[in-house]
């Protein structure tokens, strides 16, 4: 694990919220020279603390206003069953996240869909065909109360 100092943390906080900020503006915000700031950002990238840069899209504007969470319980916990499930679920384009969980289900999926009909299509075409599935429970999000991609640093 990379040891972060206060300046690294300030850089990360700014970049998480303003990924397209120029190096000059970033340096000004964190009170560094542009060259020192650039070196620190490069080090954070090289050590993997900064894993990448993305554009965050608005699902509503893309016609995918509905978030669905799907809890999946598998028929067993053998490595073959887990591997087969994980391999196949990773191929489903509508799955935004898939988490192996401890609790009432084995996996929790997050999907972004157009509406209930779109989810029914995805369910029939992909989810119902996943290997090793014993049970599936779906929950539709009514409203997003809070959401962030920024990690506390």
From TrEMBL:
InterPro entries: ArsR-like_HTH (IPR011991), AsnC-type_HTH_dom (IPR000485), Dimeric_a/b-barrel (IPR011008), Tscrpt_reg_AsnC-like (IPR019888), Tscrpt_reg_AsnC/Lrp_C (IPR019887), WH-like_DNA-bd_sf (IPR036388), WH_DNA-bd_sf (IPR036390). GO terms for cellular component: cytosol. One of its GO terms (biological process) is response to amino acid. One of its GO terms (molecular function) is sequence-specific DNA binding. Keywords: DNA-binding, Transcription, Transcription regulation. Pfam families: AsnC_trans_reg, HTH_24. The keyword Cell cycle does not apply. Residues 4-65 form the HTH asnC-type domain. The keyword Transcription regulation applies. This is Lrp/AsnC family transcriptional regulator, leucine-responsive regulatory protein. It comes from Meinhardsimonia xiamenensis.
């Amino acid at each position: 694990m990379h040891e972060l100092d206060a300046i690294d943390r300030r850089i990360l906080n700014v970049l998480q919220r303003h990924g397209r900020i120029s190096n000059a503006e970033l340096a000004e915000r964190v009170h560094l020279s542009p060259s020192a700031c650039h070196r620190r950002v490069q080090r954070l990238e090289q050590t993997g603390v900064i894993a990448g840069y993305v554009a965050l899209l608005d699902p509503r504007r893309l016609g995918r206003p509905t978030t669905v969470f799907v809890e999946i319980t598998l028929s067993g916990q053998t490595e073959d069953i887990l591997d087969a499930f994980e391999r196949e679920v990773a191929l489903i384009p509508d799955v935004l996240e898939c988490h192996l969980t401890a609790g009432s289900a084995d996996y929790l999926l997050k999907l972004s869909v157009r509406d209930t009909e779109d989810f029914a299509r995805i369910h029939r075409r992909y989810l119902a065909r996943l290997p090793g599935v014993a049970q599936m429970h779906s929950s539709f999000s009514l409203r997003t109360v809070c959401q962030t991609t920024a990690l506390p640093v």
